[in-house]
Amino acid sequence: MTQFSWRTRRESLTKFTQEVFDILIIGGGITGAGLALDAALRGLRVALVDKRDFASGTSSRSTKLIHGGLRYLEHFDFALVREGLRERAILTKIAPNLAEPFPFIIPIYKNSRRNYDHPLKMRLGLWLYDLLAGRYNLAQHRRLNRDEALRLAPQLDPQGLKGAFVYYDAVTNDSRLVIEVIKTARAHGAEIANYARVVNFIKGDGGKIAGARLCDELTGNEIECRARIVINATGVWMEDTIKLDGQAASELNKRVRPAKGIHLTVSADRLRVNAAWLIPSLASHRFYFVVPWLGRVNIGTTDTDYSGDKDHPQAQTDEVNEILGAINSYFPEARLEPSDVISSWAGLRPLITDPRAKNTTEVSRKEEIIETSDGLISIGGGKLTTYRLMAEHGINLAAKRLNERFNVAANDSASTENTAIGASLSRDELTRAVEQLSQTENLPIETSRHLINSYGADHRRLVELMREDEMLRERLINGLPQILAEVIYAARYEMALTLADVMTRRTRLAMIAGEQALKCASVAASLMARELGWSKEETERQTARFIAEFEREFTVWRQASLG
Length: 563
What we know:
alpha+beta; Helicase, Ruva Protein, domain 3; 10-stranded mixed β-sheet; 20 helices; FAD/NAD(P)-binding domain
């Protein structure tokens, strides 16, 4: 694997000014990453930019699920569910270290108010879920008795508990999935740069969009990147991007409807669950997910309309209390309080407005592709699970326009359905690799498992770094498996350019360590300074910026509650 670093970015920015690309993709979330990989595999010359870091928006703040969408069955979105279930199976195959099949439990109580739906109706829904999955099913759902349910969640309220249903979906590390797709696209020839903001569009013959003017957010310099086709994959920022082009904005007849979802991360010691749980809300017809994740437990999510700052959504006190109250009503022995929350975080789903929908829960998660007369292609909606198929649809249209307008033919022999994401290992190889790494490098088994699951076969790069400098074997935070070598790796091989890139999106420490992440921030910044050539002043500035971002986006509810 070659470097994917600040040097790679500098080279890509230079190539942006020298070449005419077939496709310029705006947005480095999961959709943009998928588009870049699909286009590169078809032999097209691809450029991808994001105004911030990869996955810095919605794609690092999801519920971490790869799923068909069980509750979409209520709206009779059978095709959408079938699509999600198929993509779920594909992702567990092409990225087994980042998409792990996982049991999900739905409790059943005598008191019908405590059930999301009538048990018979729920059983029918799960049967249909399995049926729609067909040969792509991970495992058949089944019924658990009361004792089996309590073994999986000893703090679950036993009063009136009759049993539970168990079915299977998958869990992922969302921002790591994005960066691995980005790296795979780069390995197939895509030119990529984060912190490159689109200022406006370039128009060519006949008023068609012919590229974009970019601002390098790290230097302030502006450059032009010319491309035959431009795809807008900016999620909740889709309309903002379209509005940079007055003609496209005047033709827009659908709107992005941001839906805010907040999540809480708590210790696995405080909320003891051995599977993911769907917990019905007593206040509305919806449920919350309780999902074991990276040694912690994530709880969420809300689903409400949002009209605030899209760059910095925050969890508010009432939202936090709403979730804690719902979870405590089902896990009364946990007695979760605000002080138990390691981090709270908010994400925005880019839903496309259905004029008939009264609230966000009624808006379909189906993607929409919008093409304007001057050639701008925008893709929005959808969800993390179906990113690969969304990208395929988007590039199908782009390839058609390239052929029609420029006589450029895309290669249709390559398929993302069979392309491994990152340095992937098979599921059997993953288990063997964990044990082998632990033995050969004398690492704790939890550190070995973390490195294998996070980096797949590319964990060998981290081994090389550790052998070059024994200090890099040390943990960033006591009790957690992340090690110092990952900071160097992120800067050298994952284009991490700020301390927040490493702490929030590459290692996920901001979420799983909470305020403990602040204690190792200076150590991580010093390692990045060594790799990126930061001055003492820049190192201090990076540390201060990460602390400020953490306090604003992951602990704002604490400050609000004190008021």
